[in-house]
Amino acid sequence: MSKTTHREDHLKALYALGHSGDSESEWVSTNQMATHLGVKPPSVTAMVHVLTELGWAEHRPYHGARLTPAGEKLALALVRKHRLWETFLVERLGFEWDEVHDIAEQLEHVDSVALVERLDQYLGHPDVDPHGDPIPKADGTFRNMEGVMPLSELGEFECAVVMGVKANDQTLSAMRDRGLGLGSKLTKNDLVTLPQAWLPQLMVKTS
Amino acid sequence: MSKTTHREDHLKALYALGHSGDSESEWVSTNQMATHLGVKPPSVTAMVHVLTELGWAEHRPYHGARLTPAGEKLALALVRKHRLWETFLVERLGFEWDEVHDIAEQLEHVDSVALVERLDQYLGHPDVDPHGDPIPKADGTFRNMEGVMPLSELGEFECAVVMGVKANDQTLSAMRDRGLGLGSKLTKNDLVTLPQAWLPQLMVKTS
DNA sequence: GGTCAACTTTAGCCAAGACTAAAAAAAAGT
DNA sequence: ACTTTTTTTTAGTCTTGGCTAAAGTTGACC
After folding, report:
1. What is the dihedral of CA B76, B66, B39, B88, to 10 degrees?
2. Using beta carbons and an 8 Å cutoff, which residues of A are at the interface with B?
3. How far apart are the C-alpha atoms of B141 and B160, rounded to whole Å?
């Protein structure tokens, strides 16, 4: 991997871990990063220092790291690329949505602004990727995604639609085998028939 | 760049320089490689040793290097990926044919057999890329391209069609400004009105 | 055939990013 | 509050691929 690719991977990890939790805090621990990236903690410390030097992250020793606004902007550009490529792979090349992550992981590091913008246009400026995750626009903002929440947090409902799925490839594959995917309609009954572990992973909207 | 990417770049240089010349010999000098890749000769020597170790090239000290059959197979796979991506960029994303080389250079290093094959299918199994260069098939063979030769070597003719262009991006751009591109029709008159330097670069077929 | 120029290889060094082992700081338990 | 455990950082090493400088080969020109 190039120097740039390594930095981008750490930026993305910082973004993903800082925004994923339900907590408000954006500080990410060294251990979290190391686990997420599949490297040892000292490697993360070293790279965080580099990102700090570049003005993309700030570091509070023995406490954690988080993105600066500049770093966040770069991370969002990466997320945008990743999700646009995933959309391309599924919608145009006919991949299944659980096959595309690793390929998109490589494609997202291709450096060309023109390429991203043309791809976005080619795909018709999609709002969400095949996993239902929103695609940041070129300026880093998201389209409105209100009313979407995990199935586990939904109270009384008659019918809900799957808007996105937050799960690893293996789980995605299992869901697909059960006929579960983007746009699937769910009823109260599914709350008991589906594996309970899936409920927090299914992002739904009542209808 | 990853370990793999570096190796692939040297493989491709070995292929390009070994097959480009009019000469039959496939031996490529260290200096040629260094110039082509934008590195210094000692770096090439070191990488050639690595490729030799991997069984992808053979090295005659102070004489040159060339691909083994195994190395040639790998190089052809890279050429295939490069030209398929160039085709995608021009035909689907609407890039001009003189803008795509650098982007394809990055895309060709993405590692996924399934991706290449799906891309090939998506593009309708094209025989040539936007520069008119033939695209190797998955088994490393080319489709028939007989009757195509540089304009400079064409004798008497009434009308010829441009099948490909072997030029750098700058020249490609200048050609496009003159209305010259894939499929352009040429007459005897063009032999004197076009820049003489272009004649060996224009691959044509009489019609 | 001898000398000189050009090219290639070897030797030795630097940078980036990974690792292990050890030291330092923070958190947890009693 | 003190000790122990966990987490993080520092120190030092390895690998990969680049570089410069020096030594070795080849080949060309008298």
Report:
1. -10
2. 1-2, 5, 89, 92-95, 99, 102-103, 106-107, 109-112, 114-115, 118-119, 122
3. 26
Q: How far apart are CA A80 and CA A125, in angstroms?
A: 11
Using the beta-carbon criterion (under 8 Å), do B107 and A110 form an inter-chain contact? yes
What tens digit of pLDDT does each residue of A74-132 get?
999 999 999 999 999 999 999 998 899 999 999 999 999 999 999 999 999 998 898 88
CB contact under 8 A, A106 and B92: no
**Where does B3-67 sit in CATH, by number?**
1.10.10.10
Determine whether the interchain pair B93/A99 forms a contact, defined as Cβ–Cβ distance below 8 Å. Answer: no
Element (H, E) at B5: helix B3-20
Nucleotides of D under 7 A from a protein CB: 7-12, 16-21, 24-27
Burial A41-56 (b: 16+ CB within 10 A, else e): eebbeebbeebeeeeb
